[in-house]
Design brief:
Elements (H helix, E strand, L loop, with lengths): L5 H9 L9 H16 L5 H9 L4 H23 L7 H6 L14
Helix pairs in contact: 2-3, 2-4
Length: 107
C-alpha cells in the first residue's frame, strides 16, 4: 500500500481490523468483506444497509463483493488444480522484496 501509514499496513497484514487506523466507513467495508469471505450465508440486507448508512453507495458495495468473490473463486480454482503458491505473501511478511512480473512488451 504505497503511501500508507506503517501502522495501517502492519495491522492489515495481520488481519487486525480492530486496531488498524482506518476511518470508520473503510473499517466497516472491510469487516463486511471479511464476513462475506468467512460466513457469506449470514449476509443480510441489513448488512448492506449498514454500509449505505456509512456513506457507501451501491456501486462501491457491489465492487467490494465482486472483488471478494473473484479472489475466493481464484483461490478455489488454484487449490483444485494444485497450483503452487509462489510464496509472495510470506516473503512480504518477512519484509523481502516481492518480484513484480514484467508486463508484456516490458523488460
Amino acid at each position: 500500500m504505497q503511501g500508507a501509514d506503517d501502522r495501517l499496513v502492519d495491522a492489515l497484514r495481520k488481519g487486525d481490523l480492530e486496531h488498524a487506523p482506518l476511518p470508520r466507513p473503510e473499517r466497516k467495508l472491510l469487516e463486511f468483506v471479511a464476513q462475506l469471505t468467512r460466513t457469506s450465508y449470514r449476509i443480510s440486507p441489513a448488512d448492506t444497509a449498514d454500509l449505505r448508512a456509512e456513506g457507501w453507495r451501491d456501486p462501491a458495495i457491489a465492487e467490494a463483493v465482486y472483488v471478494t468473490a473473484m479472489f475466493a473463486w481464484f483461490n478455489r480454482v488454484a487449490d483444485a488444480f494444485g497450483l503452487a503458491d509462489p510464496g509472495y505473501l510470506d516473503r512480504a511478511r518477512r519484509g523481502e522484496d516481492v518480484p513484480i512480473p514484467a508486463q508484456k512488451g516490458q523488460p
